[in-house]
């Protein structure tokens, strides 16, 4: 893109002529091999920031928690409230079965409550994520523009100078700077994609958190645990199964949404890693 096609196609703002002129006037032939080093180092740091931003808040832990919650829910089988068959049933009272089932529910309900808290914390961070990525994108764009200004100023300075047997000392430096500029330019669309990469997964996680709270409250009432003291109840087995299966279905939808979001994150990370390695 040495011809500036990316600029006249509208993909970058016009350079500040005064800035280019200032860089041009500050040229030092003796430092040509280190020309624009602060601008290059700053541009590289923006790629590092982009990598850190894309990697933050990955779905690995969320996926594990969702799977664990699903397994725990499936372990809460309302059939355990029914009398056992055979001789064992003769020594199996309804109150004992209910007490044991309530104790198992309390454990799982605690895990579900923790899951909801984790999901809501993640969702709270997700609302800030687009703005954070936008800030990184803006800084990376500015770093690109600054490199571009240096390259243009250097081109004006070097053009027309006498050509000897050896290439100008700036030539190697120019290739280094152009590679860096290309890497920063390549990071910009990755950051744009990253801003919306988690949208569907976050929507599924939000619905999952709401469904988990509904399940917890529904089972708590059905098991007679809503008041200060446990009540004598005969839980409706079908109601319990229906509420549990509704949450399991929501967990499955969340897991299905997280999988492609994780894959997108991995792809964006790979693209930025390759760009970083190029500089």
Question: In short, what is this structure?
Answer:
The protein is mainly α and 279 residues long. It has helices at residues 5-8, 17-25, 37-55, 60-75, 94-158, 170-196, 199-222, 237-278. The longest helix is centred in the middle third of the chain and has 65 residues, at 94-158.
Mean pLDDT: 87
Which H/E pattern describes the elements?
HHHHHHHH
Spans with pLDDT under 50 lasting ≥5 residues? Answer: none
Helical stretch tally: 8
Number of domains: 1
Share of β-strand residues: under 5%
Assign a percent range to the helix content.
over 70%
The biggest beta sheet reads: none
Strand runs, count:
0
Distance between the termini: 17 Å
Global Rg: 30 Å
Describe the structure.
By secondary structure, the chain is mostly helical. It has one domain (33-158, 167-278). It has helices at 5-8, 17-25, 37-55, 60-75, 94-158, 170-196, 199-222, 237-278. Helix 7 (199-222) packs antiparallel against helix 8. The longest helix is centred in the middle third of the chain and has 65 residues, at 94-158. The model has no long low-confidence stretch (mean pLDDT 87).
């Amino acid at each position: 893109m040495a011809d500036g096609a990316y600029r006249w196609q509208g993909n970058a703002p016009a350079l500040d002529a005064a800035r280019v002129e200032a860089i041009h006037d500050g040229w030092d032939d003796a430092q040509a091999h280190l020309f624009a080093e602060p601008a290059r180092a700053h541009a590289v740091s923006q790629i590092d920031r982009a990598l850190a931003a894309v990697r933050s808040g990955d779905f690995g832990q969320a996926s594990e928690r969702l799977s664990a919650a699903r397994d725990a829910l499936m372990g809460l089988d309302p059939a355990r409230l029914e009398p056992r068959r055979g001789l064992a049933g003769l020594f199996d009272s309804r109150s004992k079965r209910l007490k044991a089932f309530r104790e198992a529910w309390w454990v799982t309900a605690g895990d579900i409550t923790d899951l909801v808290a984790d999901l809501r914390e993640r969702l709270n961070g997700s609302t800030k994520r687009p703005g954070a990525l936008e800030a990184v994108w803006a800084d990376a764009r500015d770093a690109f523009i600054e490199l571009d200004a240096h390259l243009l100023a250097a081109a004006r300075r070097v053009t027309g100078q006498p050509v000897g047997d050896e290439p100008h000392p700036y030539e190697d430096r120019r290739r280094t700077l152009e590679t860096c500029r290309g890497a920063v330019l390549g990071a910009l669309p990755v950051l744009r994609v990253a801003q919306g990469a988690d949208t569907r997964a976050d929507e599924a996680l939000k619905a999952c958190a709401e469904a988990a709270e509904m399940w917890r409250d529904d089972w708590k009432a059905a098991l007679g645990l809503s008041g200060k003291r446990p009540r004598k109840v005969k839980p409706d087995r079908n109601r319990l199964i229906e509420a549990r299966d509704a949450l399991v279905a929501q967990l499955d939808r969340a897991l299905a949404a997280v999988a492609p979001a994780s894959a997108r994150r991995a792809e964006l990370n790979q693209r930025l890693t390759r760009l970083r390695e190029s500089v």
